[in-house]
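Purpose: get a first structural picture of the assembly so the mutagenesis plan has something to point at.
Setup: two entries, given in the order below. No constraints added.
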Amino acid sequence: MTRMLPHPLLTLTLAILWLLLVNTVSAGHVALGLLLGWLIPFATASLWPQSVCIRNVPMLLRYLAVVMYDIVVGSFRVARLILGRPSRLRPAFIVVPLDLTSDLAISLLANTISLTPGTVSALLSEDRRSLTVHSLDTEDAAAAVAEIKHRYEAPLKAIFESC
Amino acid sequence: MPEILLSILILVGAAFTFVGSLGLVRFRDFYTRLHGPTKATTLGVGCLLAASSIYFSFDGDLSLHEILVALFLFMTAPVSAHLLAKAALHLKLRSLAPAPEEDGDTPSR
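Result (structure tokens, whole complex):
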């Protein structure tokens, strides 16, 4: 089973991607998408050393909803900062110590931090134990770190590292 | 009715994209400037894509490939922002915030 179908999730994702690309849902395209999704992972196997597992689907959906919400709220905050007085900004580099160990979870965390307005992930330390984040306007660096850890890192750890 | 919704989405999207670009002019150092175009723009483009999807879905078939545009944008924009910030840290560009301590042989400013 695992040798014939190395990455079931990737297969499904590629099939959905294909349907979105052709922008139609017909039996022929579903079959073609599944075929591509089955064949492409063999060609890219070396890029995915371990297969991805998602343990907690409801939590993943909740996480996505939280990120969407933060993007919307954060966009308004950044817009207000841009239109306000830029000299009043308190930019800061904050260092977030990481509990995550898998590459996928770390890159997702860095991506999430950069997507949510007000913070950009800037530097992953060489030993992968901490992530330096540039924040646009920080009142309390410790609180910002705690929020990132609580809001994004904890769910990611539960979703991707429980297997 | 859809016209009103579409107009609102397009106007909101355009406003956020504009404000994001305005950040480039108003902010004072490289790192803060990075926030404008990568962020406020996310919501701006999201609104424009939602408008596109709704318009073409009303026009005929369901149109969802805008989701792909958003997905690829959400995956690539943070990566480029991260690399820009990393390069800037490496070059030790002037920063309003105190630069972080670097591990390794390069002393921090």
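The first helix of chain B runs from residue 2 to 26.
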